[in-house]
Amino acid sequence: MNADGTFSKNDSRINKKGRPKKGESLTEFLNWALDQKKTIKVKGEEKIVLLRQILAERLIEFALKGNVQAMKYVYDRIDGKPKESVDIGGGLQLIKITDTDEKALE
Fold this sequence. Notes:
There is one protein chain. The relative contact order is 0.06. A hairpin with a 2-residue loop joins strand 1 (37-42) and strand 2 (45-50). Helix 2 (51-64) crosses helix 3 (68-79). The protein has a domain at 27-79. The protein has 106 residues and is α+β, with helices and mostly antiparallel strands. The chain is 40% helix and 11% strand. A two-stranded antiparallel ribbon has the order 1-2.
């Protein structure tokens, strides 16, 4: 390490290959699966759609039929979840520590 705290060019602790690639996650697999195409019939005509389109249509159908969870999910995806406020005060009070208090703690 250099005097200014930076790494030297040939320092063995530097990761020269960069950050390792991510492994397959569930999110990556779901995205892949939802990007698959399926042929469906609409009014007697064949149409190719993504599975994610079918999923979105079914979710909206559930919401329109009165499914409250589906309604909430659709609303949250369109407008974003409402902000929640969190009280972090906890009724704590600040106290002043004097030199005599610090000596007593030793």
